[in-house]
Amino acid sequence: MKADTTAERPAGEPLLTVESARVGYQTDGRFQTAVQDVSFDIYPGENIMLLGPSGCGKSTLLKTIAGFIEPSGGTVRISGRTDLAPGPDRAVVFQEFDQLFPWHTVEGNLTYPLRVNGSSRQEAKRLAGEYLELMGLVHAAGRYPHQLSGGMKQRVAIARAMALRPLMLLMDEPFGALDAQTRSRLQRELKDVAARNDVTILFVTHSIQEAVFVGHRVVVLTPPPSTVREVVDVSGLDDPTSPEFVAALRRLRSLLTEDGEEPDDMAFE
Amino acid sequence: MSEAMTKTVGAAEPVGPGRPRGRRRTWGDLPVVPRRLIILAVILVAWQAYVSFSGVNQLLVSGPVDVAKTMAEGIADGDLLRSTATTLQILFGGMAAGMLIAAVLTTLASWTRLGEDILVLLTSMLNPLPSIAVLPLAILWFGMNSTSLMFVIANSVIWPIAINVSNGFRTVNPTIMAVGRNIGLSGVRIVKDVLIPAALPNIIAGLKTGWAFGWRTIIAAELVFGVAGGKGGLGFFINDARTFMRTSEVFAGLVTIAVIGIALELVFTWIERRTVVRWGTKTG
Protein backbone atom coordinates (compact mmCIF):
# COMPACT_ATOMS: atom_id res chain seq x y z
CA MET A 1 0.00 0.00 0.00
CA LYS A 2 1.66 3.17 -1.11
CA ALA A 3 -1.19 5.49 -0.22
CA ASP A 4 -0.42 8.70 1.59
CA THR A 5 3.12 8.88 0.34
CA THR A 6 3.08 12.62 -0.15
CA ALA A 7 0.18 13.79 1.99
CA GLU A 8 0.37 14.41 5.69
CA ARG A 9 -2.49 13.13 7.78
CA PRO A 10 -4.30 15.84 9.72
CA ALA A 11 -4.47 15.33 13.46
CA GLY A 12 -7.44 13.71 15.20
CA GLU A 13 -9.84 10.90 14.41
CA PRO A 14 -10.92 10.36 10.81
CA LEU A 15 -14.59 10.98 10.03
CA LEU A 16 -14.65 8.39 7.30
CA THR A 17 -12.40 5.40 6.90
CA VAL A 18 -12.36 3.35 3.73
CA GLU A 19 -10.36 0.15 4.21
CA SER A 20 -9.49 -2.23 1.38
CA ALA A 21 -12.85 -1.51 -0.21
CA ARG A 22 -13.77 -3.78 -3.09
CA VAL A 23 -16.83 -2.91 -5.17
CA GLY A 24 -18.20 -4.41 -8.33
CA TYR A 25 -21.35 -4.92 -10.25
CA GLN A 26 -23.11 -7.59 -12.24
CA THR A 27 -23.07 -7.22 -16.04
CA ASP A 28 -24.33 -9.89 -18.42
CA GLY A 29 -24.23 -12.38 -15.58
CA ARG A 30 -20.54 -11.67 -14.89
CA PHE A 31 -19.16 -9.92 -11.87
CA GLN A 32 -17.13 -6.88 -12.89
CA THR A 33 -14.74 -5.48 -10.32
CA ALA A 34 -14.73 -1.69 -10.54
CA VAL A 35 -12.84 -1.00 -7.34
CA GLN A 36 -10.21 -3.58 -6.44
CA ASP A 37 -8.65 -2.36 -3.24
CA VAL A 38 -9.01 1.23 -2.08
CA SER A 39 -8.16 2.70 1.30
CA PHE A 40 -8.21 6.31 2.45
CA ASP A 41 -9.35 8.45 5.37
CA ILE A 42 -11.24 11.69 5.55
CA TYR A 43 -10.76 13.98 8.51
CA PRO A 44 -13.33 16.56 9.65
CA GLY A 45 -13.31 19.73 7.56
CA GLU A 46 -11.32 18.18 4.71
CA ASN A 47 -12.14 18.37 1.03
CA ILE A 48 -11.03 15.04 -0.37
CA MET A 49 -11.01 14.68 -4.14
CA LEU A 50 -11.34 11.32 -5.84
CA LEU A 51 -9.54 11.71 -9.15
CA GLY A 52 -9.12 9.07 -11.78
CA PRO A 53 -9.55 8.18 -15.43
CA SER A 54 -13.10 7.66 -16.63
CA GLY A 55 -14.51 4.30 -15.67
CA CYS A 56 -12.12 3.91 -12.75
CA GLY A 57 -14.93 3.37 -10.29
CA LYS A 58 -14.72 6.69 -8.46
CA SER A 59 -18.46 7.26 -8.75
CA THR A 60 -19.06 3.66 -7.74
CA LEU A 61 -16.98 4.25 -4.65
CA LEU A 62 -18.96 7.38 -3.79
CA LYS A 63 -22.25 5.52 -4.23
CA THR A 64 -20.94 2.83 -1.92
CA ILE A 65 -20.18 5.38 0.76
CA ALA A 66 -23.64 6.91 0.17
CA GLY A 67 -25.13 3.48 0.82
CA PHE A 68 -26.56 2.86 -2.65
CA ILE A 69 -24.16 0.01 -3.44
CA GLU A 70 -23.09 -2.79 -1.13
CA PRO A 71 -19.28 -3.29 -1.07
CA SER A 72 -18.22 -6.84 -1.81
CA GLY A 73 -15.20 -6.56 0.44
CA GLY A 74 -13.44 -4.31 2.93
CA THR A 75 -15.04 -1.84 5.29
CA VAL A 76 -16.41 1.67 5.13
CA ARG A 77 -16.71 3.30 8.53
CA ILE A 78 -18.37 6.65 9.17
CA SER A 79 -17.68 8.06 12.62
CA GLY A 80 -17.50 4.53 13.95
CA ARG A 81 -20.58 3.16 12.18
CA THR A 82 -20.46 0.55 9.45
CA ASP A 83 -24.20 0.29 8.69
CA LEU A 84 -24.41 2.10 5.42
CA ALA A 85 -28.08 2.52 4.52
CA PRO A 86 -28.58 5.72 2.50
CA GLY A 87 -29.17 8.60 4.85
CA PRO A 88 -29.02 12.38 5.20
CA ASP A 89 -25.83 12.21 7.29
CA ARG A 90 -24.10 11.70 3.92
CA ALA A 91 -25.98 14.15 1.71
CA VAL A 92 -25.28 13.55 -1.97
CA VAL A 93 -25.02 16.15 -4.72
CA PHE A 94 -25.32 14.49 -8.12
CA GLN A 95 -24.15 15.64 -11.52
CA GLU A 96 -27.63 15.53 -13.07
CA PHE A 97 -29.55 18.78 -13.11
CA ASP A 98 -32.83 16.99 -12.48
CA GLN A 99 -31.83 15.89 -9.01
CA LEU A 100 -34.13 18.65 -7.71
CA PHE A 101 -37.78 17.82 -7.01
CA PRO A 102 -39.54 19.59 -9.90
CA TRP A 103 -42.79 19.78 -7.90
CA HIS A 104 -41.20 21.85 -5.14
CA THR A 105 -40.04 25.43 -5.41
CA VAL A 106 -36.39 26.17 -4.70
CA GLU A 107 -37.31 26.86 -1.08
CA GLY A 108 -39.47 23.73 -0.95
CA ASN A 109 -36.54 21.68 -2.19
CA LEU A 110 -34.69 22.76 0.95
CA THR A 111 -37.54 22.65 3.46
CA TYR A 112 -38.99 19.31 2.40
CA PRO A 113 -35.93 17.16 3.28
CA LEU A 114 -35.61 19.08 6.55
CA ARG A 115 -39.26 18.37 7.39
CA VAL A 116 -38.71 14.68 6.55
CA ASN A 117 -35.88 14.68 9.04
CA GLY A 118 -37.88 16.10 11.88
CA SER A 119 -37.50 19.87 11.62
CA SER A 120 -40.55 21.91 12.55
CA ARG A 121 -42.10 24.10 9.86
CA GLN A 122 -40.49 27.27 11.23
CA GLU A 123 -37.14 25.58 11.81
CA ALA A 124 -37.11 24.23 8.23
CA LYS A 125 -38.00 27.63 6.84
CA ARG A 126 -35.33 29.35 8.89
CA LEU A 127 -32.61 26.85 7.89
CA ALA A 128 -33.68 26.96 4.25
CA GLY A 129 -33.43 30.76 4.31
CA GLU A 130 -30.00 30.56 5.85
CA TYR A 131 -28.60 28.18 3.24
CA LEU A 132 -30.32 29.92 0.34
CA GLU A 133 -28.58 33.07 1.50
CA LEU A 134 -25.28 31.21 1.76
CA MET A 135 -25.52 30.01 -1.86
CA GLY A 136 -26.83 33.34 -3.17
CA LEU A 137 -30.28 31.96 -3.99
CA VAL A 138 -32.62 34.17 -1.97
CA HIS A 139 -34.01 35.86 -5.08
CA ALA A 140 -34.89 32.46 -6.60
CA ALA A 141 -36.60 30.97 -3.52
CA GLY A 142 -40.08 30.98 -5.08
CA ARG A 143 -39.08 29.63 -8.48
CA TYR A 144 -39.51 26.09 -9.72
CA PRO A 145 -36.42 24.13 -10.77
CA HIS A 146 -37.33 24.16 -14.48
CA GLN A 147 -37.09 27.95 -14.39
CA LEU A 148 -33.44 27.83 -13.30
CA SER A 149 -30.19 27.60 -15.25
CA GLY A 150 -27.95 24.58 -14.77
CA GLY A 151 -25.60 26.49 -12.49
CA MET A 152 -28.50 27.65 -10.32
CA LYS A 153 -29.85 24.11 -10.09
CA GLN A 154 -26.52 22.83 -8.84
CA ARG A 155 -26.38 25.68 -6.31
CA VAL A 156 -29.80 24.63 -5.03
CA ALA A 157 -28.67 21.00 -4.80
CA ILE A 158 -25.63 22.06 -2.79
CA ALA A 159 -27.74 24.30 -0.53
CA ARG A 160 -30.23 21.47 -0.01
CA ALA A 161 -27.47 19.03 0.94
CA MET A 162 -25.77 21.51 3.27
CA ALA A 163 -29.03 22.54 4.96
CA LEU A 164 -29.33 18.96 6.22
CA ARG A 165 -26.07 19.63 8.10
CA PRO A 166 -24.65 16.23 7.18
CA LEU A 167 -21.50 14.69 8.57
CA MET A 168 -20.11 15.03 5.09
CA LEU A 169 -21.12 16.07 1.59
CA LEU A 170 -20.73 13.49 -1.16
CA MET A 171 -20.37 15.24 -4.50
CA ASP A 172 -20.47 13.16 -7.68
CA GLU A 173 -18.99 15.43 -10.39
CA PRO A 174 -21.50 18.14 -9.43
CA PHE A 175 -20.09 20.62 -11.96
CA GLY A 176 -19.44 18.10 -14.72
CA ALA A 177 -22.36 19.23 -16.90
CA LEU A 178 -21.75 22.96 -16.55
CA ASP A 179 -20.06 25.32 -18.98
CA ALA A 180 -16.51 26.37 -18.13
CA GLN A 181 -17.33 29.80 -16.71
CA THR A 182 -20.16 28.67 -14.47
CA ARG A 183 -18.08 25.74 -13.43
CA SER A 184 -15.14 27.79 -12.20
CA ARG A 185 -17.45 30.25 -10.46
CA LEU A 186 -19.16 27.40 -8.60
CA GLN A 187 -15.81 25.83 -7.69
CA ARG A 188 -14.82 29.12 -6.08
CA GLU A 189 -18.16 29.46 -4.25
CA LEU A 190 -18.05 25.90 -2.97
CA LYS A 191 -14.49 26.26 -1.78
CA ASP A 192 -15.36 29.48 0.11
CA VAL A 193 -18.55 28.18 1.65
CA ALA A 194 -16.97 24.87 2.67
CA ALA A 195 -14.00 26.61 4.28
CA ARG A 196 -16.11 29.14 6.16
CA ASN A 197 -18.52 26.50 7.45
CA ASP A 198 -16.03 23.72 8.09
CA VAL A 199 -17.83 21.32 5.76
CA THR A 200 -16.31 17.91 5.07
CA ILE A 201 -16.50 16.94 1.41
CA LEU A 202 -15.78 13.88 -0.66
CA PHE A 203 -15.72 15.11 -4.23
CA VAL A 204 -15.50 12.92 -7.33
CA THR A 205 -13.99 14.58 -10.40
CA HIS A 206 -12.07 13.78 -13.53
CA SER A 207 -10.75 17.32 -13.82
CA ILE A 208 -7.21 17.85 -12.53
CA GLN A 209 -7.74 21.59 -12.26
CA GLU A 210 -10.86 21.06 -10.14
CA ALA A 211 -9.07 18.56 -7.92
CA VAL A 212 -6.22 20.98 -7.19
CA PHE A 213 -8.40 24.05 -6.76
CA VAL A 214 -11.19 22.63 -4.59
CA GLY A 215 -9.31 19.90 -2.74
CA HIS A 216 -7.11 19.62 0.30
CA ARG A 217 -5.94 16.15 -0.62
CA VAL A 218 -6.40 14.29 -3.89
CA VAL A 219 -6.82 10.52 -3.92
CA VAL A 220 -5.58 9.43 -7.36
CA LEU A 221 -7.05 6.15 -8.56
CA THR A 222 -5.67 3.80 -11.21
CA PRO A 223 -7.78 2.51 -14.12
CA PRO A 224 -10.15 -0.33 -13.17
CA PRO A 225 -10.00 -2.58 -11.28
CA SER A 226 -8.75 0.42 -9.37
CA THR A 227 -6.45 0.91 -6.44
CA VAL A 228 -5.05 4.10 -4.92
CA ARG A 229 -2.10 5.27 -6.98
CA GLU A 230 -1.18 8.06 -4.63
CA VAL A 231 -2.64 10.65 -2.27
CA VAL A 232 -1.42 14.14 -3.09
CA ASP A 233 -1.57 17.13 -0.76
CA VAL A 234 -2.93 20.17 -2.58
CA SER A 235 -4.10 22.25 0.40
CA GLY A 236 -3.66 26.00 0.29
CA LEU A 237 -3.39 26.19 -3.50
CA ASP A 238 -5.80 28.99 -4.39
CA ASP A 239 -4.09 30.82 -7.23
CA PRO A 240 -4.20 28.84 -10.48
CA THR A 241 -1.30 30.89 -11.85
CA SER A 242 1.06 30.27 -8.94
CA PRO A 243 4.05 27.97 -9.56
CA GLU A 244 2.93 25.64 -6.77
CA PHE A 245 -0.51 25.26 -8.36
CA VAL A 246 0.99 24.53 -11.75
CA ALA A 247 3.43 22.07 -10.20
CA ALA A 248 0.53 20.23 -8.54
CA LEU A 249 -1.31 20.09 -11.89
CA ARG A 250 1.82 18.61 -13.50
CA ARG A 251 2.25 16.08 -10.77
CA LEU A 252 -1.37 14.85 -10.95
CA ARG A 253 -1.23 14.84 -14.70
CA SER A 254 1.82 12.63 -14.72
CA LEU A 255 0.20 10.29 -12.19
CA LEU A 256 -2.81 9.95 -14.48
CA THR A 257 -0.93 9.70 -17.78
CA GLU A 258 1.22 6.87 -16.47
CA ASP A 259 -1.87 4.87 -17.24
CA GLY A 260 -1.78 6.04 -20.81
CA GLU A 261 -5.04 7.90 -20.28
CA GLU A 262 -5.28 11.52 -21.35
CA PRO A 263 -7.20 13.41 -18.68
CA ASP A 264 -10.14 15.33 -20.02
CA ASP A 265 -9.22 18.73 -18.71
CA MET A 266 -9.32 21.77 -20.97
CA ALA A 267 -8.33 24.14 -18.19
CA PHE A 268 -4.87 22.64 -18.20
CA GLU A 269 -4.15 23.14 -21.87
CA MET B 1 -13.31 30.34 -24.58
CA SER B 2 -15.70 32.44 -26.59
CA GLU B 3 -18.47 34.42 -24.95
CA ALA B 4 -21.07 32.85 -27.18
CA MET B 5 -20.36 29.42 -25.79
CA THR B 6 -21.12 30.29 -22.21
CA LYS B 7 -24.87 29.95 -22.34
CA THR B 8 -25.70 27.67 -19.46
CA VAL B 9 -26.86 24.20 -20.37
CA GLY B 10 -30.53 23.67 -19.61
CA ALA B 11 -31.21 27.32 -18.89
CA ALA B 12 -34.87 28.22 -18.87
CA GLU B 13 -35.78 30.40 -21.83
CA PRO B 14 -37.51 33.65 -20.96
CA VAL B 15 -41.25 33.19 -21.34
CA GLY B 16 -43.72 35.60 -22.90
CA PRO B 17 -44.58 36.83 -26.34
CA GLY B 18 -41.61 37.98 -28.34
CA ARG B 19 -42.80 39.89 -31.35
CA PRO B 20 -39.96 41.34 -33.36
CA ARG B 21 -40.12 45.12 -33.45
CA GLY B 22 -41.90 46.56 -36.46
CA ARG B 23 -43.61 43.38 -37.59
CA ARG B 24 -47.31 43.77 -38.49
CA ARG B 25 -49.85 42.32 -36.05
CA THR B 26 -51.30 39.08 -37.35
CA TRP B 27 -53.91 36.49 -36.37
CA GLY B 28 -51.30 34.63 -34.33
CA ASP B 29 -50.72 37.64 -32.07
CA LEU B 30 -54.29 37.47 -30.74
CA PRO B 31 -54.79 35.61 -27.46
CA VAL B 32 -56.12 32.08 -27.84
CA VAL B 33 -59.62 32.65 -26.41
CA PRO B 34 -60.68 35.39 -28.85
CA ARG B 35 -59.13 33.37 -31.70
CA ARG B 36 -61.30 30.37 -30.86
CA LEU B 37 -64.44 32.46 -30.25
CA ILE B 38 -64.10 34.16 -33.61
CA ILE B 39 -63.78 30.83 -35.41
CA LEU B 40 -66.73 29.41 -33.47
CA ALA B 41 -68.87 32.45 -34.40
CA VAL B 42 -67.95 32.10 -38.08
CA ILE B 43 -68.89 28.40 -38.05
CA LEU B 44 -72.23 29.08 -36.34
CA VAL B 45 -73.10 31.83 -38.81
CA ALA B 46 -72.15 29.65 -41.79
CA TRP B 47 -74.17 26.75 -40.39
CA GLN B 48 -77.25 28.92 -39.85
CA ALA B 49 -76.86 30.52 -43.28
CA TYR B 50 -76.67 27.08 -44.91
CA VAL B 51 -79.83 25.88 -43.17
CA SER B 52 -81.75 29.13 -43.83
CA PHE B 53 -80.78 29.87 -47.41
CA SER B 54 -79.62 26.69 -49.19
CA GLY B 55 -83.05 25.09 -49.25
CA VAL B 56 -81.80 21.97 -47.50
CA ASN B 57 -84.54 19.76 -46.05
CA GLN B 58 -85.03 21.07 -42.49
CA LEU B 59 -86.30 17.67 -41.45
CA LEU B 60 -82.74 16.43 -41.94
CA VAL B 61 -80.61 19.40 -40.86
CA SER B 62 -81.32 21.80 -38.00
CA GLY B 63 -79.71 25.20 -37.67
CA PRO B 64 -77.93 26.42 -34.54
CA VAL B 65 -80.84 28.65 -33.53
CA ASP B 66 -83.25 25.69 -33.57
CA VAL B 67 -80.75 23.52 -31.75
CA ALA B 68 -80.24 26.15 -29.07
CA LYS B 69 -84.01 26.47 -28.64
CA THR B 70 -84.38 22.69 -28.36
CA MET B 71 -81.58 22.52 -25.81
CA ALA B 72 -83.20 25.25 -23.74
CA GLU B 73 -86.51 23.37 -23.85
CA GLY B 74 -84.81 20.08 -23.02
CA ILE B 75 -83.16 21.67 -20.02
CA ALA B 76 -86.38 23.39 -18.97
CA ASP B 77 -88.57 20.26 -19.13
CA GLY B 78 -85.76 18.14 -17.69
CA ASP B 79 -85.57 15.56 -20.50
CA LEU B 80 -82.10 16.46 -21.70
CA LEU B 81 -80.84 17.03 -18.17
CA ARG B 82 -82.16 13.66 -16.99
CA SER B 83 -80.54 11.86 -19.90
CA THR B 84 -77.26 13.65 -19.31
CA ALA B 85 -77.35 12.86 -15.61
CA THR B 86 -78.02 9.17 -16.33
CA THR B 87 -75.11 9.01 -18.74
CA LEU B 88 -72.72 10.79 -16.39
CA GLN B 89 -73.77 8.62 -13.46
CA ILE B 90 -73.01 5.44 -15.39
CA LEU B 91 -69.80 6.95 -16.72
CA PHE B 92 -68.56 7.90 -13.24
CA GLY B 93 -69.49 4.48 -11.88
CA GLY B 94 -67.64 2.68 -14.65
CA MET B 95 -64.68 5.03 -14.45
CA ALA B 96 -64.40 4.57 -10.69
CA ALA B 97 -64.44 0.78 -11.02
CA GLY B 98 -61.94 0.95 -13.90
CA MET B 99 -59.57 3.27 -12.03
CA LEU B 100 -59.68 1.05 -8.96
CA ILE B 101 -58.85 -2.08 -10.95
CA ALA B 102 -56.14 -0.17 -12.86
CA ALA B 103 -54.63 0.93 -9.55
CA VAL B 104 -54.52 -2.67 -8.29
CA LEU B 105 -52.98 -3.93 -11.55
CA THR B 106 -50.41 -1.13 -11.58
CA THR B 107 -49.43 -1.81 -7.99
CA LEU B 108 -48.95 -5.50 -8.74
CA ALA B 109 -47.03 -4.67 -11.91
CA SER B 110 -44.71 -2.33 -10.01
CA TRP B 111 -44.11 -4.82 -7.23
CA THR B 112 -43.40 -8.03 -9.07
CA ARG B 113 -41.99 -9.06 -12.40
CA LEU B 114 -44.86 -11.53 -12.84
CA GLY B 115 -47.40 -8.77 -12.25
CA GLU B 116 -45.68 -6.62 -14.87
CA ASP B 117 -45.69 -9.47 -17.41
CA ILE B 118 -49.38 -10.14 -16.78
CA LEU B 119 -50.26 -6.46 -17.19
CA VAL B 120 -48.25 -6.09 -20.40
CA LEU B 121 -49.83 -9.23 -21.89
CA LEU B 122 -53.39 -8.30 -20.90
CA THR B 123 -52.94 -4.76 -22.15
CA SER B 124 -51.51 -5.79 -25.48
CA MET B 125 -54.47 -8.14 -26.00
CA LEU B 126 -57.33 -6.05 -24.66
CA ASN B 127 -56.25 -2.45 -25.43
CA PRO B 128 -56.50 -2.79 -29.24
CA LEU B 129 -59.97 -4.34 -28.89
CA PRO B 130 -62.56 -1.60 -29.53
CA SER B 131 -64.18 -1.45 -26.13
CA ILE B 132 -67.72 -1.49 -27.53
CA ALA B 133 -66.98 -4.99 -28.88
CA VAL B 134 -67.46 -6.52 -25.45
CA LEU B 135 -70.99 -5.09 -25.13
CA PRO B 136 -72.75 -8.25 -26.40
CA LEU B 137 -70.85 -10.27 -23.83
CA ALA B 138 -71.79 -7.77 -21.11
CA ILE B 139 -75.46 -7.96 -22.09
CA LEU B 140 -75.23 -11.74 -22.00
CA TRP B 141 -73.77 -11.67 -18.51
CA PHE B 142 -75.59 -8.76 -16.88
CA GLY B 143 -78.63 -8.08 -19.13
CA MET B 144 -79.78 -4.77 -20.61
CA ASN B 145 -78.94 -2.55 -17.66
CA SER B 146 -76.48 -0.04 -16.36
CA THR B 147 -74.24 -2.79 -14.95
CA SER B 148 -73.51 -3.87 -18.51
CA LEU B 149 -72.61 -0.31 -19.45
CA MET B 150 -70.35 0.11 -16.44
CA PHE B 151 -68.63 -3.15 -17.27
CA VAL B 152 -67.92 -1.98 -20.80
CA ILE B 153 -66.68 1.41 -19.59
CA ALA B 154 -64.49 -0.09 -16.89
CA ASN B 155 -62.92 -2.36 -19.49
CA SER B 156 -62.32 0.57 -21.82
CA VAL B 157 -60.50 2.67 -19.20
CA ILE B 158 -58.49 0.06 -17.28
CA TRP B 159 -55.91 -0.61 -19.98
CA PRO B 160 -54.89 2.89 -21.05
CA ILE B 161 -54.69 3.97 -17.40
CA ALA B 162 -52.79 0.91 -16.18
CA ILE B 163 -50.26 0.93 -19.00
CA ASN B 164 -49.57 4.67 -18.72
CA VAL B 165 -49.27 4.70 -14.96
CA SER B 166 -47.03 1.65 -14.74
CA ASN B 167 -44.93 3.09 -17.56
CA GLY B 168 -44.66 6.29 -15.55
CA PHE B 169 -43.50 4.42 -12.46
CA ARG B 170 -40.98 2.41 -14.43
CA THR B 171 -39.41 5.41 -16.14
CA VAL B 172 -39.06 7.67 -13.12
CA ASN B 173 -35.61 9.25 -13.16
CA PRO B 174 -33.41 7.03 -10.94
CA THR B 175 -31.52 10.09 -9.69
CA ILE B 176 -34.64 11.59 -8.13
CA MET B 177 -35.39 8.28 -6.41
CA ALA B 178 -31.78 8.15 -5.16
CA VAL B 179 -32.23 11.66 -3.76
CA GLY B 180 -35.42 10.46 -2.04
CA ARG B 181 -33.56 7.62 -0.37
CA ASN B 182 -30.64 9.86 0.44
CA ILE B 183 -32.78 12.31 2.39
CA GLY B 184 -34.12 9.38 4.39
CA LEU B 185 -37.33 8.40 2.61
CA SER B 186 -38.54 4.84 2.23
CA GLY B 187 -41.70 2.75 2.01
CA VAL B 188 -45.05 4.46 1.57
CA ARG B 189 -43.54 7.91 2.02
CA ILE B 190 -41.18 7.66 -0.96
CA VAL B 191 -44.07 6.37 -3.10
CA LYS B 192 -46.38 9.19 -2.04
CA ASP B 193 -43.86 12.03 -2.00
CA VAL B 194 -41.46 11.13 -4.82
CA LEU B 195 -42.66 8.29 -7.05
CA ILE B 196 -46.22 9.55 -7.60
CA PRO B 197 -45.37 13.22 -8.22
CA ALA B 198 -42.52 12.12 -10.51
CA ALA B 199 -44.88 9.84 -12.45
CA LEU B 200 -47.72 12.38 -12.45
CA PRO B 201 -47.28 13.42 -16.11
CA ASN B 202 -47.91 9.79 -17.12
CA ILE B 203 -50.67 9.34 -14.56
CA ILE B 204 -52.51 12.38 -15.92
CA ALA B 205 -51.93 11.25 -19.51
CA GLY B 206 -53.39 7.84 -18.62
CA LEU B 207 -56.43 9.33 -16.93
CA LYS B 208 -57.00 11.66 -19.86
CA THR B 209 -56.91 8.81 -22.35
CA GLY B 210 -59.08 6.73 -20.02
CA TRP B 211 -61.75 9.43 -19.78
CA ALA B 212 -61.73 9.99 -23.51
CA PHE B 213 -62.16 6.25 -24.13
CA GLY B 214 -64.85 5.94 -21.49
CA TRP B 215 -66.82 8.89 -22.83
CA ARG B 216 -66.80 7.60 -26.40
CA THR B 217 -67.66 4.11 -25.26
CA ILE B 218 -70.66 5.00 -23.15
CA ILE B 219 -72.29 6.99 -25.94
CA ALA B 220 -71.75 4.13 -28.37
CA ALA B 221 -73.09 1.59 -25.89
CA GLU B 222 -76.16 3.69 -25.16
CA LEU B 223 -76.91 4.02 -28.85
CA VAL B 224 -76.86 0.24 -29.13
CA PHE B 225 -79.12 0.05 -26.08
CA GLY B 226 -81.39 2.64 -27.65
CA VAL B 227 -81.68 0.57 -30.82
CA ALA B 228 -82.41 -2.47 -28.68
CA GLY B 229 -85.19 -0.60 -26.92
CA GLY B 230 -83.47 0.14 -23.60
CA LYS B 231 -84.02 3.31 -21.60
CA GLY B 232 -81.41 5.68 -20.43
CA GLY B 233 -78.95 8.39 -21.19
CA LEU B 234 -77.81 10.65 -23.98
CA GLY B 235 -77.26 7.90 -26.52
CA PHE B 236 -80.81 6.76 -25.96
CA PHE B 237 -82.03 10.38 -26.14
CA ILE B 238 -80.47 10.80 -29.57
CA ASN B 239 -81.71 7.51 -30.88
CA ASP B 240 -85.22 8.16 -29.57
CA ALA B 241 -85.27 11.58 -31.27
CA ARG B 242 -84.10 9.98 -34.51
CA THR B 243 -86.97 7.48 -34.36
CA PHE B 244 -89.52 10.29 -34.23
CA MET B 245 -87.71 12.56 -36.74
CA ARG B 246 -87.09 15.23 -34.09
CA THR B 247 -83.95 16.27 -35.90
CA SER B 248 -83.19 19.29 -33.73
CA GLU B 249 -83.18 16.99 -30.68
CA VAL B 250 -80.65 14.74 -32.39
CA PHE B 251 -78.45 17.79 -32.91
CA ALA B 252 -79.09 18.96 -29.34
CA GLY B 253 -77.93 15.60 -28.03
CA LEU B 254 -74.78 15.72 -30.14
CA VAL B 255 -73.98 19.25 -29.00
CA THR B 256 -74.46 18.20 -25.37
CA ILE B 257 -72.04 15.30 -25.85
CA ALA B 258 -69.48 17.61 -27.42
CA VAL B 259 -69.87 20.20 -24.65
CA ILE B 260 -69.39 17.61 -21.92
CA GLY B 261 -66.35 16.25 -23.76
CA ILE B 262 -64.88 19.75 -23.88
CA ALA B 263 -65.70 20.29 -20.20
CA LEU B 264 -63.81 17.11 -19.28
CA GLU B 265 -60.83 18.32 -21.34
CA LEU B 266 -60.94 21.63 -19.49
CA VAL B 267 -60.90 19.88 -16.13
CA PHE B 268 -57.73 18.05 -17.14
CA THR B 269 -56.18 21.23 -18.51
CA TRP B 270 -56.96 22.90 -15.19
CA ILE B 271 -55.32 20.07 -13.23
CA GLU B 272 -52.28 20.12 -15.52
CA ARG B 273 -51.83 23.86 -15.18
CA ARG B 274 -51.68 23.51 -11.43
CA THR B 275 -49.27 20.58 -11.51
CA VAL B 276 -47.15 19.34 -14.40
CA VAL B 277 -47.24 22.58 -16.40
CA ARG B 278 -46.18 24.59 -13.36
CA TRP B 279 -43.42 22.08 -12.65
CA GLY B 280 -42.25 21.94 -16.26
CA THR B 281 -42.65 18.16 -16.39
CA LYS B 282 -45.61 17.85 -18.79
CA THR B 283 -44.89 15.34 -21.54
CA GLY B 284 -45.98 15.56 -25.15
UniProtKB/TrEMBL annotation, chain A:
The keyword tRNA processing does not apply. Pfam families: ABC_tran (PF00005). One of its GO terms (molecular function) is ATP binding. InterPro entries: AAA+_ATPase (IPR003593), ABC_transporter-like_ATP-bd (IPR003439), ABC_transporter-like_CS (IPR017871), ABC_transporter_ATP-bind (IPR050166), P-loop_NTPase (IPR027417). This is ABC transporter ATP-binding protein. Gene3D superfamilies: P-loop containing nucleotide triphosphate hydrolases (3.40.50.300). It comes from the Bacteria.
